[in-house]
Structure formats: structure tokens, C-alpha cells
């Protein structure tokens, strides 16, 4: 049974099944796929047989007038309808399950905004783009958006829920396989739509509990939603450059700014410091510390030529030392200096069989 | 072109007879009216959804509607429907003068409706009872209140536009009637123009209770 | 019957005689030129999109340009190509010929729709030049009301195009009701007419809803009335309901005409009466009716109530059944036929298979739980391209080849046509089968860049798209060439029994010298007729 499951899963390029729910969805998928293929290829074969058997033998050949018997049309309707309704009879209860979280589920609040995910555990830490959950326990997600519609999508869980501004939606899952799985935004939300990546980290229950305990101890202000929280084991006592890089990761700067010179939503940070920058309104400024800080706090005041005014303000989201740390980090990014550690979003290895 | 076309100048070459042509014109008009109703259906749906979401907001806001002006306008429009129906009747009788006079009265009623509506709009503007982000009325706030005025202005505004278009259509029909285009055997345009005017009236009959009475 | 009037192409000369023509056939030819131009433009954008997706990161354009590109591709292909293509070209050209009429009921309105099309297209294109729109063709709020790009011109353009679509539908309904020749009973109507009738009903009933909805978005974007704005109590999901109330039936506006075309093609090339005339005719009306009640299957993951999702899911299965009936009946039509495999028939087969596989993936999406995984992924993209490109464009090409000799009096090169048909069908499969697999893997749609694991399948898809584009170019080339040096076709080169073939090729200005009286069905092949032109193999 498991071999068949793995064979079909690989045949259809489906990602690893990270929950029992995902397995059951795939089983319906296999049933639908196999029965559809049998039906469709039967029709294809029939047409091919007819084309050969009833090929035209002379021009203007006349043919027998054939009318259907009622029973034939009834079969044409009945057989597919029975099959389709069987699909539905399996699929709909699965959907109902997905829409009804169990009572003992623990909650995680999900806040989406252009273009990042924020996760908050009640009474616990917040985190950006990384959702940690324990294996084997039901988790309910309560999702809302700050701006436009997003959609929370974890392929490995076969799970998707639109995230709407102005209201909460919910969904739930119970992961059964520890591991790291990508989170995508599935509803188009603008420039950074495809960069709005996150990661679901499914941890063994004990490990999760001790992580949570540690987070509670180190972060007092953790429950506050807006506060940028060092969930990624940020060590703020490290050097300023490293701190700047960390803050930039947490704030999602790299969704729009590259550090290797490549063009993206926003200007690259490589060699930005002290460069003469041409602005949209024709002026040019030197990208010094003051300009870089201004760009974080009032991003739309001075737009670099060729870019769109899409950057959100970080006024109130970055403390002064954090902004300074980012500036220090940008200053360090020079082609003539040693290349810093490459910065990319989480990279996922292609799924393969067992 | 076949000879019969020469006999009746209104008959287009691709129709077998004048009856068939009038049948087609009438059917086309009814289908067009159906699309007009569907255009408004979107707004009626939005009204239903938001009234369901904000029952008290809508109730409170509708107290600021000018019921007297609205009721007068209802009477004006219903009367105009009567005059346009009479115009169709006289057009069928071939009495062009009466047709023109009745159409003129109908157009005047339409204008009166717009004037009264203008007074209403003016009051709402002065009070700041405006849609969405323009809403700044001191006397009432709360969820759904500005949505009431959003829908009020959108729906009565679109309706007002239809009144204007209807007046234009009736003017054109009246000019043709005065020119003597219509006779006992051919008065379809008067009828179609009248149908359109009835639709304008009908939509108001739904708008009036929704915004003024409920 | 003697024809003493000249053919419609030669009757009058000069551009003015085209721009002011009331002849349904000339209007059809004008639409052919406009719609093919729109298709070329939309296809060009599709190729740019595929090139951008050749590598995981930025390839040839920045994210903003890419977002505008897929919006343009969607808007052009749907509003300027898919919706008008078959009704405005073949519907206009053939309806009067099939009904034994001289013209459609309202020729002036018919000409007016051409100008609406031009104005709507011009406004939309102008808006795209003025900065473009980056919302996707679905214009979802609140993104569309808050984006920095200009949205209003495109919305207005779509509204005007919608008006044209309404008027075309209205015109066709009245024409079918009032201008049937003596003896042409409803049960003798060619199946093309039935499906066109069903299409027109949808156009008339659904398009005004879309028009109003798009205007509301424009008002919201321009003035901030708050109708879809959650901050002012508005409901963004209401937009999705209103939008899909039109846009799902619009899918049937795009696919029913395709069914209309192939119902004619399959009978002509199998020389066989359709199996189950009533089933095929009434299933079109069934699709038009049930199609209005399935829009909620676009909202399974939007947080709509579980109950509503169930209802919409079941009803979607029934829409699938009406399509299944047709597929089986077309297949059964081949039984005991006399099949000649020419280019239109190859496209018919392409249509049949793609509709079937596309339709079955639609059924899979309607199972609700599977849709949760596939919603907004490339699986959905591949699904609707199977229906729209796979089914509708194949049918469009089938019809174009089948009626080409009727419209222009010349035969195209059959050898080139067969080669191009094979290329198009192969290219199509290579483009969209990888997209199904990408959807299974979980690649969301409208992605500018993507993680590396999606790379190889995207390369395959882009390669397929190049093949497909090449195939289309070949079709265009030999069709244009045939206008000049194609073999003269004669009135009925296929030996078809359809009423439209009872005219010379190209037809004369007034279609028929006198109103014909219909004595047989358009699909009878059991007896030989007198004076049929010998079919050249």
C-alpha cells in the first residue's frame, strides 16, 4: 500500500505528505486520477478505432442514419455522474474536516502583510516567516491580513486558506512528519508576491516545548504583535554588522533588496553606500547614513529613478540601534570588500522518494 | 431589394414583413431591459448584503432621508408613466399632436424629478452625509452608516443617469412624432421609448422603499 | 437558384465601404482581423511571460513589468480574443446563412459592436501604455483599489467590450427567434445555432453584472467610496462573488461556441448525422442554466461557509455532466461514419481530447478538498488553459479551416495545415502538462520568481510554448498565402450538408436570391443529393 502511495505520489510530482490529512487528500487524488485516466483513454481509444474502422472509402459516401436509444443517453449521463458524485462524496467530508478544527487545538495567530508572514503564539513569542509547530498536536491557525488578500499555502499539508483584511479566517492541521516545509503566498498580492515565502518547521514535541520555554524566558515583550522579535536566535550582543543582517532578515528587507548586485523590487544594497543616486524627480543625492535612514523611515520621499513607491515605512518598527545596524550592514557591502554570507530565502530540496 | 420594401419605407430589406420587424424590435427591447435590470441587480445585491451586515447602521441612516421629497418624486414618476402610456395610445391612433404633447409632459416630469433629487443631494452635501471617506456628518456615526450613503448615491445616481437618458430617448421620439414619422400602422419607436421610461419608473419604485421607508 | 448579385468581398470597393458596411459577412471579416491581431498581441505577452519564467530568478524583466504582462495577457486574451472570437466571427458570418436569412436582425447594432470593440480595446491599451495595470485580469479587491498602477482605463475598456458582447448576444437571440426561413423548425436548427443561442443567453444575462462590478471597482479606486474596503465596512469577498457570477458563466461564453463549431465539423468530416441531436442541443442550454449557479467554486478557500462550498461543488459536477454528454455523443457520431482525416478533423480530435482532460481536471477541482491544494496554483492555470486554449482555440482553428473556403473562396494548403496542426497539438501538451505537475508540487500562479525545485518543469513549459507559437505562425502564414494563390474552392468543397454551403463561395451580398425553404435537416447524410460537387481527396 505504501509503495503504491509513494509510486503515485512521485509520478504526480506531489510533495512529501506531512500530515495524515495530506495522505488522505492524496488518496482521493489517486482515485480521481486513475479513474479519470481510464475513462478518458477509453474514449480516446474508441475514437481511434472508429477513425480506422469507419474511414471514408469513397467521396460523397452516404451513411446510415443512427439515432440513440434512450438507454444509451442514460448511460452517458449515469456513469459519469455516479463517478463524479463518488468523488464529491469522498472529497466534501475531507473539506468539512479541514473547516472544523478540533477543540483541543492550540492556536497560532497569523498576520500577513506585503510581503511577509508573522506568527504569534498566545502568551509566547512572535516570529517572522518561520512557523514552528510540534509534531502530532493539532494546531489551529487564525489568519488575518494587514493590507490586501493573501493566501496561506503549505503544499506539504495540502492546505490553503485565504487571509483577508479586516476579518479572521481559520484552518488547522496536525503535522505527522518532523521536517522543514515551504510556506507560499498563493493569492496574488503585488510586487513581492513570489518572494513572500515562509517556512514551516515541524519539531518533535519535546524539542518544541523547550524552544517555547526558552523563548518565553528571553522575550518579555513577546506578546506584542508589532514588536520585531528576535525569534531567529538573534544574538544582539554580536557585532553590529551581524546584528544589521539579522534585523534585515527579520524585517524582510531581502524580499526586495539584494546584496549581490542583482536587480529586484528595490535597489540592490551592494555598493550602495556613498554612491550618487539618481532620484525619480531628477535630483541626485549621495547615499550616506542620513539618506539610508531617511529611506527606511520615509521611503516614499525620495524614490530612486526606475523604482516604484512600494516600500512600507519602518517608522516605529525599527528602533534607532536597529536602523543603525542596518546602515552599518549596508556600508559593509562592497564589491572590493570580502563578500558577505550570501542571503537568500529558504531553499528547499526537491522532494524525492524514500 | 424586394418590391414590398418600397411599399413600406420603414421595412428593412432583411425582414420578410413589417410585423416580423416590429416583433424583432420589441423582443430586442425587452432583452435590453433585462440587461438594465441586471445592471442594477449588482447594486441591489450589495444593498442586501450590507443591510444584512449593518442592520442598525442602515436603519439610523435612513432616518436622514427626505421622505417627503422622495414620496413626491415617486408620485411624479408614476404620473409620468401614465402620460407616456397615453402617448403610446395616441401614437397608435395616429394622433401625432397629442402624442407630442404627452411626451413633452413626460419629459417635464422627468426634469421635475431631477430638480427635486438635486435639492436632496444638496442637503446631503451640506450635511456631509457623503459616501465612504467623504462622510463627515456629525449627527450620526457607526458601522455601516457611510455605506448607506455610498449605496444611496450610487444607486440613485445611476437611476438619475437613466432618467436623463430616458428623457433624451423620449425627446428623440417626440421629434420624430412631430415630424410625422408615425402612423396608425407604424408607431414602434414610441412604444419602445415608453417601455424604457417604464423601466426607469419601476427601478425607482424599488429604490424608494429601500432608502426612504425601511 | 441563380445568383445575380456579386460576392460580398467584391460588391463594393474601398475602405469606406468596409467601415460603414452593414453586411454581417463583412463585419465578420473585420472581427476576424481585429480578433487575430488581439490574439497575436496576447500570445506575444504569453511568450514574454514564459521567457521570464525560464529561470528561477529575474530573467528578462523586473517584477513590476512581469505583473503587468500577465495582466495584459489575461485581459487581452479573455476580453479581446476568447469572448468575441467565435461568436463575432463565425456567429456573424454563419448565423444568417444557416437560418436562410439575409442578415442579422439589427445590422446597425452589429456594426456598432465593432466600434465598441475598437473603443474598448483602445481605452484598455491606452491605459496599459499609461503605466499599465498589475492586478491580474481578476481585479481582486482590495489589491486593485489600492495598487499604485492605473486600473480605471482597463476596467472601463472591459466595461465597453462587455457592452459590445451584450449587444451581440441580444442581436443573435432576436435573429434566431425571428429570422428563421420557412420550414426551419427548432428541431432542424443546426447545432451551431443552438450552442450560439445558449452563448447569447449567457452574454445577455451575465455581462451586465460584470460591467457594473468593474465600474464599482473603478469608483472605489478613484473616489474611495468604501464599497469593497474592509476599513469602511466593505466586503472584499462580495467583489469575488459578483465577479465570478459573471466570470464563471463567461467560461461557457468561451467554450459553448467551441462546442458549436465542432458539432458542425464532426458531422461534415464523418459524413454522419450527429448522435443524439436533442442531447447535444439541450445540454448547451443546460450548461447555460447551471453555469449561473456554480460561481462559488472559485471561493472554496476564501472562508465561505462549508455549506455553500458543498452546494457549489455538487452543482459543478452537474455542469461537468452536460459536457460529458456532448463528449460521448461526438464520439458516438463517428460510429458508422465515413471519416476523412483533414486538418479541421485533426483539430476536432484535439478539441475533444483537451476538453475531456481539461474537463476531468475541472471535476477533480470540484471535489472541494482537492481544490484546497490546487487553488491558485499552476494546476488551475493548466486546467483553464486546457479548456480555453486546448478546447476553444482548437475549435476556433477547426472552424477557421472548415469555413475558410466559404469565407474567402480559396482552399488552404492541406499538407501545411496537417503539419501545423500536429505541431500545435504537441506544443500545447508540452506547455501545459508540466504546469499540471507544477501545480501538484505547489507552485502558486502569478509568481515572478520561484524556488529551484520548480525549475525543470518551467523550462519544459517554456519550450512547449515556443513550439506552440511557431505552430500558430505557420497557420497564419499559409492561410494568408492561400488568399492569393489558393485553389478556388467552389461552393461546397467538403461535401457538407450544412445550409451555409448552399451558397456560392464566397457568398453573394444578399446571401440567397430568394428566401430558401428548408425541407431537410442540416445534418442528413443517409441519401445522396443531386448535384453535389465531387469531393477531392
Structural features:
heterotrimer; A: 354 residues; alpha+beta; Immunoglobulin-like; Cytochrome Bc1 Complex, Chain D, domain 2; 3 domains; 5-stranded mixed β-sheet; 7 helices; 18% strand; extended; disordered C terminus; C: 537 residues; mainly alpha; globular
Structural class of chain C: mainly alpha
Give Rg of chain A in angstroms. 27 Å
The CATH topology of the largest domain in chain A corresponds to Immunoglobulin-like
Shape of chain C: globular
CATH architecture of the largest domain in chain A: Sandwich
Helical residue percent band of chain A: 25-40%
Strand order of the largest sheet of chain A: 3-2-1-5-8
Question: Can you describe this structure?
Answer:
The complex is a heterotrimer of chains A (354), B (214) and C (537). Chain A has three domains: 2-56 and 69-99, no CATH class; 106-218, Immunoglobulin-like (Sandwich); 240-332, Orthogonal Bundle (Cytochrome Bc1 Complex, Chain D, domain 2), CATH 1.10.760. In chain A, 34% of the residues lie in helices and 18% in strands. Chain A has helices at 2-11, 20-53, 70-99, 205-218, 240-251, 289-297, 320-332; strands at residues 106-113, 116-120, 126-128, 130-134, 139-145, 150-154, 159-163, 169-173, 179-185, 198-203, 276-278, 284-286. Chain A has a five-stranded mixed β-sheet with strand order 3-2-1-5-8, with no helix packed on it. In chain A, helix 2 (20-53) runs antiparallel to helix 3 (70-99). Chain A is extended. Chain A starts with a helix and ends in a 22-residue tail after the last helix. Mean pLDDT of chain A is 83; it is low at 221-238 and 337-354. Chain B is mainly alpha-helical. In chain B, helix 4 packs antiparallel against helix 5 (96-127). Chain B is elongated and about 60 Å long. Chain C is mostly helical and 537 residues long. In chain C, helix 2 (24-52) packs parallel to helix 4, helix 2 packs antiparallel against helix 15 and helix 3 packs across helix 8 (236-270). Chain C is built from 15 helices and no strands. The chains are: A alpha+beta (354), B mainly alpha (214), C mainly alpha (537). Chains in contact: A-C, B-C. Chains B and C meet through helix 2 and helix 6 of B and helix 6 and helix 7 of C.
Amino acid at each position: 500500500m505504501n509503495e503504491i502511495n509513494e509510486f503515485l505520489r512521485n509520478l504526480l510530482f506531489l510533495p512529501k505528505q506531512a500530515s495524515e490529512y495530506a495522505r488522505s487528500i492524496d488518496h482521493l487524488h489517486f482515485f480521481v486520477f486513475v479513474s479519470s485516466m481510464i475513462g478518458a483513454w477509453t474514449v480516446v481509444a474508441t475514437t481511434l478505432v472508429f477513425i480506422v474502422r469507419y474511414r471514408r472509402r469513397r467521396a460523397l459516401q452516404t451513411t446510415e442514419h443512427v439515432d440513440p436509444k434512450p438507454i444509451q443517453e442514460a448511460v452517458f449521463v449515469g456513469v459519469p455522474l455516479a463517478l463524479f458524485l463518488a468523488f464529491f462524496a469522498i472529497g466534501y467530508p475531507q473539506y468539512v474536516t479541514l473547516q472544523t478544527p478540533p477543540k483541543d487545538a492550540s492556536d497560532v495567530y497569523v498576520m500577513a502583510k506585503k510581503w511577509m508572514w508573522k506568527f504569534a503564539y498566545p502568551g509566547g513569542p512572535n516570529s517572522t516567516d518561520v512557523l514552528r509547530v510540534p509534531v502530532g498536536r493539532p494546531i489551529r491557525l487564525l489568519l488575518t491580513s494587514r493590507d490586501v488578500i493573501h493566501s496561506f499555502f503549505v503544499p506539504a499539508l495540502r492546505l490553503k486558506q485565504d487571509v483577508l483584511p479586516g476579518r479572521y479566517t481559520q484552518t488547522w492541521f496536525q503535522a505527522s512528519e518532523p521536517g522543514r516545509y515551504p510556506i507560499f503566498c498563493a493569492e496574488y498580492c503585488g510586487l513581492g508576491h513570489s518572494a513572500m515565502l515562509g517556512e514551516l518547521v515541524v519539531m518533535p514535541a519535546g524539542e518544541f516545548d523547550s524552544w517555547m520555554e526558552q523563548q518565553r524566558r528571553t522575550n518579555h515583550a513577546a506578546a506584542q504583535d508589532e514588536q520585531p522579535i528576535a525569534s531567529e536566535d538573534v544574538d544582539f550582543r554580536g557585532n553590529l554588522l551581524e546584528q544589521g543582517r539579522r534585523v534585515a532578515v527579520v524585517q524582510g528587507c531581502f524580499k526586495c533588496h539584494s546584496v549581490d548586485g542583482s536587480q529586484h523590487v528595490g535597489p540592490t544594497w551592494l555598493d550602495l553606500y556613498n554612491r550618487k543616486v539618481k532620484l525619480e524627480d531628477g535630483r541626485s543625492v549621495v547615499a550616506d547614513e542620513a539618506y539610508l535612514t531617511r529611506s527606511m523611515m520615509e521611503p516614499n520621499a525620495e524614490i530612486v529613478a526606475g523604482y516604484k513607491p512600494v516600500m512600507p515605512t519602518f517608522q516605529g518598527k525599527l528602533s534607532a540601534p536597529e536602523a543603525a545596524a542596518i546602515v552599518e550592514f549596508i556600508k559593509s557591502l562592497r564589491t572590493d570588500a570580502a563578500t558577505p554570507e550570501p542571503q537568500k530565502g529558504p531553499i528547499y530540496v526537491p522532494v524525492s522518494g524514500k | 431589394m424586394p418590391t414590398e420594401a418600397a411599399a413600406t419605407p420603414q421595412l428593412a430589406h432583411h425582414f420578410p414583413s413589417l410585423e416580423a420587424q416590429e416583433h424583432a424590435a420589441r423582443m430586442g427591447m425587452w432583452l435590453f431591459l433585462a440587461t438594465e435590470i441586471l445592471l442594477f441587480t449588482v447594486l441591489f445585491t450589495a444593498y442586501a448584503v450590507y443591510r444584512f451586515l449593518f442592520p442598525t447602521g442602515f436603519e439610523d441612516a435612513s432616518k436622514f432621508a427626505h421622505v417627503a421629497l422622495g414620496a413626491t418624486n415617486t408620485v411624479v414618476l408614476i404620473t409620468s408613466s401614465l402620460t407616456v402610456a397615453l402617448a403610446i395610445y395616441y401614437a397608435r391612433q395616429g394622433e401625432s399632436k397629442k402624442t407630442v404633447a404627452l411626451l413633452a409632459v413626460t419629459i417635464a416630469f422627468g426634469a421635475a424629478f431631477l430638480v427635486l433629487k438635486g435639492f436632496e443631494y444638496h442637503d446631503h452635501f451640506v450635511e456631509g452625509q457623503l459616501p465612504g471617506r467623504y462622510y463627515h456628518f456629525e449627527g450620526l456615526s457607526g458601522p455601516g452608516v457611510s455605506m448607506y450613503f455610498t449605496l444611496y448615491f450610487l444607486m440613485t445616481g445611476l437611476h438619475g443617469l437613466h432618467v436623463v437618458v430616458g428623457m433624451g430617448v423620449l425627446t428623440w421620439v417626440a421629434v420624430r412624432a412631430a415630424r410625422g414619422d408615425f402612423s396608425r400602422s407604424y408607431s414602434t419607436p414610441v412604444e419602445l421609448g415608453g417601455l424604457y421610461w417604464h423601466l426607469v419608473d419601476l427601478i425607482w419604485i424599488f429604490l424608494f422603499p429601500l432608502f426612504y421607508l425601511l | 437558384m441563380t445568383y445575380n448579385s456579386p460576392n460580398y468581398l467584391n460588391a463594393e470597393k474601398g475602405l469606406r465601404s468596409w467601415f460603414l458596411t452593414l453586411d454581417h459577412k463583412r463585419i465578420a471579416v473585420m472581427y476576424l482581423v481585429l480578433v487575430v491581431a488581439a490574439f497575436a498581441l496576447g500570445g506575444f505577452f504569453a511568450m514574454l511571460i514564459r521567457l521570464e519564467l525560464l529561470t528561477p530568478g529575474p530573467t528578462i524583466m523586473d517584477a513590476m513589468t512581469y505583473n503587468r504582462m500577465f495582466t495584459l495577457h489575461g485581459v487581452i486574451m479573455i476580453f479581446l480574443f476568447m469572448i468575441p472570437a467565435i461568436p463575432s466571427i463565425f456567429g456573424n458570418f454563419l448565423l444568417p446563412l444557416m437560418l436562410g436569412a439575409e442578415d442579422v436582425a439589427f445590422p446597425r447594432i452589429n456594426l456598432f459592436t465593432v466600434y465598441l470593440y475598437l473603443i474598448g480595446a483602445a481605452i484598455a491599451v491606452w491605459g496599459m501604455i499609461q503605466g499599465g495595470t498589475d492586478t491580474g485580469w481578476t481585479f481582486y479587491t482590495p489589491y486593485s483599489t489600492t495598487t499604485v498602477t492605473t486600473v480605471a482605463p482597463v476596467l472601463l475598456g472591459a466595461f465597453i467590450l462587455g457592452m459590445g458582447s451584450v449587444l451581440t448576444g441580444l442581436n443573435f437571440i432576436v435573429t434566431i427567434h425571428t429570422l428563421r426561413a420557412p420550414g426551419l423548425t427548432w428541431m432542424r436548427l443546426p447545432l451551431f445555432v443552438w450552442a450560439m443561442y445558449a452563448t447569447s443567453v449567457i452574454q445577455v444575462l451575465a455581462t451586465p453584472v460584470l460591467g457594473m462590478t468593474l465600474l464599482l471597482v473603478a469608483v472605489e479606486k478613484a473616489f474611495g467610496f468604501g464599497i469593497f474596503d474592509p476599513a469602511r465596512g466593505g466586503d472584499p469577498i462580495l467583489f469575488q462573488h459578483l465577479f465570478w457570477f459573471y466570470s464563471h458563466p463567461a467560461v461557457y461564453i468561451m467554450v459553448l461556441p467551441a462546442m458549436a463549431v465542432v458539432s458542425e465539423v464532426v458531422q461534415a468530416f464523418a459524413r454522419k448525422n450527429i448522435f443524439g441531436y436533442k442531447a447535444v442541443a439541450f445540454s448547451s442550454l443546460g450548461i447555460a442554466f447551471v453555469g449561473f449557479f456554480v460561481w462559488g467554486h472559485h471561493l472554496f478557500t476564501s472562508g465561505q461557509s462549508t455549506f455553500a462550498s458543498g452546494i457549489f461543488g455538487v452543482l459543478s459536477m452537474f455542469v461537468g455532466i452536460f459536457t460529458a454528454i456532448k463528449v460521448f455523443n461526438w464520439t458516438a457520431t463517428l460510429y458508422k461514419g465515413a471519416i476523412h482525416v483533414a486538418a479541421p478533423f485533426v483539430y476536432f480530435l484535439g478539441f475533444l481530447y483537451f476538453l475531456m482532460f481539461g474537463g476531468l481536471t475541472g471535476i477533480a477541482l470540484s471535489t472541494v478538498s482537492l481544490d484546497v491544494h490546487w487553488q491558485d496554483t499552476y494546476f488551475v492555470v493548466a486546467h483553464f488553459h486546457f479548456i480555453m486554449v486546448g478546447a476553444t482555440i482548437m475549435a476556433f482553428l477547426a472552424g477557421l479551416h472548415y469555413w475558410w473556403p466559404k469565407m474567402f473562396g480559396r482552399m488552404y494548403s492541406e499538407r501545411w495545415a496537417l503539419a501545423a496542426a500536429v505541431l500545435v497539438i504537441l506544443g500545447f501538451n508540452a506547455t501545459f502538462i508540466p504546469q499540471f505537475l507544477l501545480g501538484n508540487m505547489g507552485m502558486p500562479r502569478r509568481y515572478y520568481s520561484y524556488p529551484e525545485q520548480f525549475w525543470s518543469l518551467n523550462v519544459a513549459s517554456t519550450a512547449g510554448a515556443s513550439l506552440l507559437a511557431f505552430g500558430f505562425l505557420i497557420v497564419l502564414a499559409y492561410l494568408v498565402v492561400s488568399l492569393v494563390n489558393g485553389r478556388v474552392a467552389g461552393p461546397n468543397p467538403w461535401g457538407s450538408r450544412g445550409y451555409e454551403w448552399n451558397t456560392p463561395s464566397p457568398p453573394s451580398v444578399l446571401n440567397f436570391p430568394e428566401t430558401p425553404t428548408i425541407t431537410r435537416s442540416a445534418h442528413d447524410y443517409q441519401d445522396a443529393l443531386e448535384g453535389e460537387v465531387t469531393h477531392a481527396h
